Amino acid sequence: MSPSKNEIIIAVMGPTGSGKSQIIDLLSGSTKWAGSNLKPETDQVREIKAIVPVGKEAREITLVETPGFDDIDKSDAGILQMLADWMATRSRNSTKLTGILYLHRITDNRQAGTPHRNLRLFKKLCGDELGVERKVVFVTTMWDKNQGEPGRLMAYQKRQDELREYWRPMLTLGAQVAEFNKTREAAVELICRVISQHSVGGVARLQEELVDLNLPLDETRAAQVVGSQYQSLIAEHRGTLLDLDRAMQRTNDPSMVADLHAERERVEAELNKIVEQGKAMRIGFFSKLKNGLFGKKTKGRGVEF
Predict the structure, then answer these.
(1) For residue 119, what are the domain limits?
(2) Are 153 and 48 in the same domain?
(3) In what order do the strands lie in the sheet with 8-13?
(4) Distance CA 72, CA 39 (A)
(5) pTM summary value
(6) Strand ranges inside the chain, DSSP E
(7) 86, 189: one domain
(8) d(CA 303, CA 219)
(9) Same domain, 195 and 108
């Protein structure tokens, strides 16, 4: 049975442990998917059906949970490929994302490490000129964590203000911010916010680039972000190897040399793994856009490592 063009499909994205599975469990009535603090909630793109009250009627929706880009068992390139495959399949079946919930722990520093990287890649997935912003709801979670501590609530509210400033480019174009308090009512409200913008045009950038523009994955903007991250990691590891080589040349202590050599082997193994992961994105350097879009030809740019 082919999917309906009017099907409501909402992607639930965000870092591992931000509450994606919890929202889906509350909406679907399941208790089997919520992840622990030690493992990612999901290691693949999952589709879950749920019946949600919208206004005076019950609507069937499809919730799509994506792995966090900080999944400990998968590279960013691998997760991006999973998202690309799913989006491409959906688009070829004439369906588009109704909207996106992007979850962010209020306990996370807005610019620290993984959350910042996740948001940067998320923005590339969505795009900034295709009208998708109105379909995005940024959801802050984990408000109850350590709230009994003096000043904690005030600190979280300050963090939310900082996040609003960080998200301002998308908020200005219509994206929304909401808080999630771990109740079904709050989860339903999030869905209603997305559905209220259902008539607004625009699709996720990755869908547009993969299907409508027929770009290979490595030429999408999201892939460019992943590629730049791999380049930084490679440069960092190569610099470490040079430092270790210099340190071994400066010492005459056999024990120290042995320790440095062991560390060099470890770093070199990590570097080789990063390079191999990066090769997964190098799949279409010769690909170019064909005629069709506004009568123009556009060259794609591959991801280099």
Answers:
(1) 8-212
(2) yes
(3) 46-54, 57-65, 8-13, 99-105, 136-141, 176-179
(4) 8
(5) 0.59
(6) 8-13, 46-54, 57-65, 99-105, 136-141, 176-179
(7) yes
(8) 7
(9) yes
